Amino acid sequence: MFETFSERVKWLRKENNLTLVEMGDRLGIGRDAYANLEYGRVEPAKIVLKAICRETGASLDWLESGAAKPYTSDEDRVVAKVVSLMAGSEHKNTKALIRALAKLDDAQLDAIDTYVDALLAELGR
Predict the structure, then answer these.
(1) How far apart are CA 10 and CA 37, in angstroms?
(2) 78, 90, 56, 54 alpha-carbon torsion, rounded to 10°
(3) Residue 83 and residue 57 in contact, taking contact as beta carbons nearer than 8 Å
(4) CA 2, CA 85: separation in Å to the nearest integer?
(5) Computed from CA positions of residues 95, 74, 15, 56, in that sequence, does the dihedral angle turn out positive or negative?
(6) Is 79 in contact with 57 (CB distance < 8 Å)?
(7) Distance from C-alpha of 5 to C-alpha of 39, rounded to nearest angstrom
(8) pLDDT digits (tens, 9 = 90+) for 6-43
(9) Which of 39, 72, 87, 105 has CA atoms 20 to 30 A from the CA of 99?
């Protein structure tokens, strides 16, 4: 899929709909330092690799070598997307929904699950 580290790190940034500035800021290294990673001008320190994985939900093995899958599970990908939405997105209503869901207790979440199951059954899905 992606043979070089620079290709993988660029794909991750774009997959998360982030600019060079946004990704650099999230990693605490700035735009230029991050761009150097994407252009293959520098080798990343292990702490930077781990920060990229933390911010994107990517597998460290994949990021370093390309040998594994980008995400260890679909859950990792979802978590990364939620983190991305909450940190840099302009989608204020989506953020409000995520905040509201995070405040619900188990009984309330169960009620939502029951409702969604009924809705999907009604729609034939």
Answers:
(1) 8
(2) -100
(3) yes
(4) 25
(5) positive
(6) yes
(7) 9
(8) 999 999 999 888 899 999 998 999 999 999 999 999 99
(9) 72
Q: How far apart are CA 35 and CA 54, in angstroms?
A: 18
- H/E element, 31: helix 30-38
Looking at residue 90, its amino acid is E
DSSP H helices in the chain: 5-15, 20-27, 30-38, 46-56, 60-65, 74-88, 92-103, 106-123
| Alpha carbon distances (Å) from 98 to 22, 62, 72, 93, 123 | 21, 29, 23, 9, 24
d(CA 21, CA 71): 23
What is the pTM (predicted TM-score) of this model? 0.65
